[in-house]
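S1.2 Input.
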Amino acid sequence: MASVEARAGEWARSGPVTGKASLAGNGTIGPADREAERPDASRPVTIAYIAESAGVSVPTVSKVINGRSGVSAATRARVEELVDRFGYRRPAGAGRSNVVELVFRELTSMWAVEIIRGVERVAREHRVGVMVSEFGLHDAAPSTWDDTVSRRPHCVLSVAQLSEAEREELRAKGIPFVVFDPTAELPDDVPFVGATNWSGGRAATRHLTELGHRRVAMISGPQDVLCCCARLDGYRSALRAAGLPVDPDLVAYADLTREDGRAAAGGLLALPDRPTAIFAANDLQALGVYQAARELGLSIPGDLSVVGFDDLPVVAWVEPPLTTVHQPLTEMAVAATELALALGRGERAPQLGVEIATTLTVRDSTAPPRG
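S1.3 Output.
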């Protein structure tokens, strides 16, 4: 596995309280006080014990603990009061299926296969199942997410994003989760696995400046996508380190598709003083740059050097093979799944944020500029 850069964090869910405690001066009830209130302190606090104490059935207590409907307000309040008074804690993993739920917002991307491969590898080792769900970016029906929660998976691994409401619902159901390659900033208590996007953007641009390029353009992704912003910042840092100006005319913004990469490259290559090299925010954009260059009769790398980002398997087979930043998607998926399963077992994670290092893969699409 590639080397790891980790951002330390603390797991927000505390483990079971151990030891004895007396009623604190501020009125807080400790474990010793809870035991004193119980009619039979020698019996363990179980769902059956709470049901007996409340005078209701075990299924009724289960509904209350799991937040399900079908219980009157008065009964729910009585059960919740006993749960709090006796300090009941649901066993780690209780009621959850032995399945990792892998959630994509869209499955059309070419790198989805690399992620699934990594998740499946870990799942086989731990003898757990994998369920893949696709929600859509904006138009998913609420029932789709409700179905995921109702299945009570062992843990959820969500690619790119997980809204605050979704995170809170998972927490309420006791379902651990990890965000894979987040597209936006997350609170400190949200576990995630990503890549060193800033370092990757810097390495790609430094490679081009070290070849002698002075007009280096970048096609960045959407300005609200976290990884794209980091790659763009890495590009700017490398230019400054090389003593080159950061020319806003040499930065284009486009969606992360081949078609949008082609359109953005067409605009950059139409400049009076066109760039001699283009760094694209992902490999699909870079393939669009190839298409735009061919349409203009420009050779790669003779007239134009091109660098991508991701290192999808297909880019090693294009002509010429693409120089790109290798994003270790499979290794990232392995790390994310291991973290999610550990949280599902109730373990405390030493780091909540993990970034796997990117590396530059040099192939035949880059060369010194002519002249």
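S1.4 Remarks. Residues 31-86 form a domain with the 434 Repressor (Amino-terminal Domain) fold (CATH 1.10.260.40).
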